[in-house]
Structure formats: C-alpha cells, structure tokens
Design brief:
With 368 residues, this protein is α/β, with parallel strands linked by helices. The chain has a single domain, classed as Purple Acid Phosphatase, chain A, domain 2 (4-Layer Sandwich). The protein is built from 11 helices and 21 strands. A 7-stranded mixed sheet has the order 6-5-2-1-19-20-21. Strands 8, 9, 11, 12, 13, 14 and 15 form a 7-stranded mixed sheet that branches. The N and C termini lie far apart (43 Å).
C-alpha cells in the first residue's frame, strides 16, 4: 500500500473563475496511489455567517463554498485533516457543514469534531494484519486565533499541549502497529522553525510516533530524521490558490469573472485593505511538497515538489537548488546548538542567505 501526503488544500479562491486548476500529469500521478491525504484548511459553506470572534479580531476568514468541495473529490482525496486554524472560520455551522459534505463524498476526516473525543479520534488504515492510526493536532504555541478548542462537551479542533499529545501517542501505540501524526504547527512563512518544535518532534517520536507530517507555515520546511523516523516539518501549500478579499480582510467570491478580473492584485497577507483585492502568494509560498510513503516497507518515504503557477494551476516541480537547500536546513536542525545556528542563519547581516533567497528556483514568476 502506498500513501501520498500533501500540504494545505483550499479548493476555492480564484479557481471558479478559470477552466483548470491542476495539471493532468500531476493528477494522474496522484491517482496512482492507494490513498491521498491532505489538510483541508478552510471553512466550508455557502451563505454561512463568518465566525464573529474571528471577525472581531484577526478578520482573516478563509472559506470555500459548497460547490467548491468537488475539487477535493476530483483529486481523489480519501482522508483530510481538519486540525487547523481556519476550520471554524464559519463557526460551528461551517464545521458541521464540512463534515456533512465530506461524509457524503466518502472522504474520511480527523482533527476536529463535536468534542475532544471526536476531534482526537484517528483514522485507522488496515494493511493486512497491520493497523495504522493517523491523527491531527494543533499545539498551544505560535498558532494564532484558535477560538474553538475541543473539550469534553464543546466542539473544536484537537488543540493541546505537548504533554497531552505525547500521552495520546502512547495510548494509540498500545492499540495500533504504527502511528502517524499530522500536526498543524510552526511559524508562518518561516523556512526554519523555532527550536521548541524540534523538541516537540523528538518527544513525539520518542513516545512512539512513526512519522510526522506537518503543515501551517505555508512554506516548505526541512525533512529531519530522529531515531530513524522522519519528520516533515511542513509540506507547505498544495492546492491553495490566490483568493479575493473584501474590506476589512475576509475572503469573498465576486459575482462575475469580470468583477474578479478588475480587482487590484496585492501580496498576501495585507494587514488591512481599503478596497477589494486579489491576495497573491509570494513565489516561495507557491512551492509545495508531496510525500510518498510505502506502508509495506516500514513507512519508508521520500518527497517530490509541486508548484502553483502564476495562472493558479498546480504542477509537479523539479529543482536541485531547492533540494540542496532543504538538505542544508536539515543539517542545521541536527546541530546540538540549533538555537544559536538558527539565530545566526536568520541574522540581518547573513548576506549569503539573502542571496540564496533570490535564486530563480525560489522565485516562481508571479503576476501583480
């Protein structure tokens, strides 16, 4: 059995105003796997009110309409994680609607639910005599605006501290042969994460996690092996196209294609806007990762790259420069003094890093 893991998926945005959104060769490649798993990072609903608490604070509403969900099915997704900071952008009604639509499409889900038990509950994959549990979570550090944390009686995402997650991994390990964790964690738009997340990864693997597949930064992060188990800190964006935003910042869907084409284009994310715009991903956010995992070979895995073009069409992508840089990042994360190495790497006078950031491999042509 072979599984394909991908990063954040938001199957709406500008996609309704164009004829295609994914390259046929990539789609064929995806269909060659037994299972396809990603993170559905958006609220889901047509004419469902925005969550009031989020609108009163961050105002960053990301959602798709009911008619946009068909793209998840067209790409062949079997399982999605709902453990993310946009799952409740349309409130509890939005989550319930998402779950209902996913259920109708036969797509399994985890990471959020009517209570903590439901949000924690893993999806279990049966591979002969072997059972593999996959669950999603969010940590209580550096992931913003989580107004819905699942409790014993309240709906929300599985939003916990590392001690709680470690105990849960140990519990699952007593019941299942393998455990895969999909945390939504880290700092957005950062290639290298805070040393605390390295510690979290080590603790989860020590507790029994057999692989970690991360998301949230909207940018690819390094692949690091701890005790022979791989941690993909962030797969970045998968199908997460540009989106239209109205004042003050929530997403919206223009009535016509002409209205969409008339909008001014700006780099995402503007802190505030004075007119409706199209929020455009920067080049580094348009490169993502896909992880091939062989269940029959002790979860052996490796990755391939994807790219969202300036026309918002997803393709496979090949770049030795990106792979070399990923290897360098992984080397930095293995250093005993990683915290010091990270500060030096990110220092404003690190001219080598600033030059490398401008390499063509990291600068997909984008139209503004």
């Amino acid at each position: 059995m072979k599984i394909l893991f991908v990063g954040d998926v938001m199957p709406g945005g500008v996609l309704p105003y164009q004829s295609t959104y994914i390259d046929k060769e990539l789609l064929s490649y995806m269909q060659s796997f037994d299972l396809r798993i990603g993170t559905l990072e958006c609220g889901v609903g047509t004419n469902i009110p925005f969550d009031s608490r989020k609108m009163d604070t961050y105002k960053s509403i990301v959602y798709v309409r009911n008619e946009d969900i068909h793209r998840i099915s067209e790409m062949g997704f079997n399982i999605v994680s709902l453990a993310n900071n946009h799952a409740f952008d349309l409130g509890v009604d939005g989550l319930n609607n998402a779950i209902s639509l996913l259920d109708k499409l036969g797509i399994q889900h985890f990471g959020a639910g009517a209570n903590k038990e439901e949000a924690q509950k893993p999806v279990v994959i049966n591979n002969g005599n072997e059972k593999i549990a996959i669950f999603g979570c969010m940590f209580d550090y550096r992931v913003p605006y989580i107004f819905y944390t699942a409790t014993e009686s309240n709906p929300g995402v599985y939003h916990a501290n590392i001690e709680d997650v470690v105990l849960y991994i140990r519990e699952l390990k007593r019941k299942f042969d393998k455990v895969i964790v999909m945390p939504h964690w880290g700092e957005e738009h950062k290639y290298l994460q805070n040393k605390l997340f390295k510690e979290y990864a080590c603790r989860m693997i020590k507790a029994g996690a057999d692989a970690i597949i991360g998301s949230h930064p909207h940018i690819i992060n390094p692949v690091v092996s701890f005790s022979g188990k791989k941690c993909y800190f962030s797969l970045g964006n998968f199908l997460f196209p540009e989106k239209c935003m109205q004042v003050p910042r929530p997403m919206y869907y223009p009535e016509t294609k002409e209205e969409y084409l008339s909008l001014k284009r700006m780099w995402t994310y503007p802190k505030s806007i004075s007119e409706p715009i199209v929020a455009v991903w920067k080049p580094k956010n348009r490169i993502g990762m896909m992880v091939e995992m062989d269940v029959n070979d002790n979860l052996k895995s490796h990755y391939h790259l994807t790219c969202l073009t300036a026309d918002n069409v997803l393709h496979r992508y090949s770049s030795m420069a990106v792979r070399l840089r990923m290897a360098f990042w992984a080397l930095l994360m293995h250093l005993p003094k990683y915290g010091l190495a990270l500060r030096l790497y990110n220092h404003r006078y690190n001219l080598l890093r600033r030059i490398v950031d401008k390499l063509p491999a990291f600068n997909i042509p984008v139209k503004l």
